[in-house]
Each structure stands twice: as structure tokens, then as C-alpha cells.
Amino acid sequence: MASAAKPLIAVCQMTSTSDKEKNFATCWGLIRGAAARGACMVFLPEAFDYIGGNAEETLSLAETLHGDTIQRYSQLARECGLWLSLGGFHEKGPNWDTDRRISNSHVVLDNTGHIVSVYRKAHLFDVDLQNGVSLRESSFTLPGAEIIRPISSPAGKLGLGVCYDLRFPEFSLALAQAGAELLTYPSAFTLTTGLAHWEVLLRARAIETQCYVVAAAQTGSHNQKRASYGHAMVADPWGAVIAQCQEGTGVCYAEIDIPYVERVRREMPVRRHRRADLYGKISFNKPD
């Protein structure tokens, strides 16, 4: 149990498949376990709802925010009395009936089950890897139109991202300058990119923003074509890894110390030392 001054968060790792019922059962167990430990907020990874074997299957399983999946998690949040970060929900787009496109949506529920915030992934993952894997998220996913301002949560002021957003420091700096104390990047990193960049990117974002960085993760083999790196973790504002999952499905826990965030920022005052006169100011742009 965490003290009142240091809220406890739970960061999950799982292996989603196209079986939505099985995925929910896994998340149900992780969330219930976290509630028993006294966590105030549980973070689930990108694609916690499912990972399809191909684009057709992925689209066929998509839902709206008012569908059964979000309703079930809303009920679970109420029953457990905690907040949920639903890291990457396959949400039917606004013109679904005509274009069959979805959003990769990070949905936050409060402890009454209400939707507090929805961030739709801005940076889409289109790559051709050396091992022959080719991923084209933009082929069926709409890019998000805006960064969402940090929200107040039991763990602190939370800035929302998803997976590939992690690679863009301007994104994290904009959230930090808007007041974020925690940044969260629920992810499904590939094995290749995870081995090379996962931990170093998370720690770098923590150091340069002086925020906690929270990264729930997919792990293991989802189907014959796709596998994820795992290693869900939490980095503190000094860049130290303070919690990390081992192999397989599981949860890691971290206490969030907001006075420590303030101390790091006070003792290493990089915000005051920024030279906006030389390289401009990172700020939110209003969507067209």
C-alpha cells in the first residue's frame, strides 16, 4: 500500500491476440490484482483490446467509445475504485461508414467509470525493418489532430501519448511545458526497435522533461506475423528506472513522488535556461 503522499501506480504488460474476450480476462486479472495492492491508477498497453492478424481483422473488431469494450472497463473502474489508462483502443473513426478508418485512441477513465480524456495517436508507425517486417499504420488509421493538455489524476498531472509518439521530443516537451508531471507511452514496440531504443528513449524523455515516464507494454508473440518487445517500465524525473516488468504477462508498481519532481526541476533548472530566442518555443498549435 502506498502512502497518501506517494500514490501507487500499476503498469501492465500483456500479450494481446485477436481474441477480445481472452484479452479482457487478462486485463481483468491485472486490474483486480492492482486494486488489491492499493494502486490508484492502472496503465494498460497499446492494443490492450486486441491485435489482429491483418488489416481486415483489425478493422472488423473495432468499436466506438460507446461500445461494449469501453463499457466493461468503465464498470471495472467503478467496481475497483481506481483510474484506468486504456493505452490504445481501436476506435471507429468519425466517417467509419464511408472510409472504414480507425483512430488509435488513448482513453482515460476515472474511478467512477467516466471518460476523462481521449487522445488520438498523432504519429503513425510506417516502417520497413531490416528483418523484412513492414508496418503501415496509416493504411487504416487516422492521425490525431491535436495534443491533449495534461489532465489531473490521482497520480499527478498526466500527459498522454501512444507508442511511436515516444520518438518525438517536441511532443513530450510540449506536454511538460503545459504542466505534465507524468508522461505515459503505452506501447507495442517491435523486438528490433525495442532492443535498440526502448529503454534509452524512455529515460531520455524523463531526463529532458523532468517528468515520470510510464510505459505499459505488449510482449511476446501475438500471431505468426507480429511480436512485441515488452519490458514495461517507469522512469523517474532523474532518468532512473524505478520499476520494470520481467518476461510474460505481469504488473510492475511504482510510487509517484511529486515533491521529488519539483526538487529535480529546482536543482537542475533547465526550464529557466532554455534559449527560446535561439531555437523557438515549444507550444501547442490549435488544430485547423
From TrEMBL:
GO MF annotation terms: deaminated glutathione amidase activity
Limits of the CN hydrolase domain: 7-258
Top-level taxon of the source organism: Eukaryota
UniProt-listed Enzyme Commission number(s): 3.5.1.128
A Pfam family the protein falls into: CN_hydrolase
Principal EC category: hydrolase
UniProt keywords, alphabetically: Hydrolase
InterPro entries xrefs: C-N_Hydrolase (IPR003010), C-N_Hydrolase_sf (IPR036526), Nit1/2_C-N_Hydrolase (IPR045254), UPF0012_CS (IPR001110)
Family per record: Belongs to the carbon-nitrogen hydrolase superfamily. NIT1/NIT2 family.
Name listed for the protein in its UniProt record: Deaminated glutathione amidase
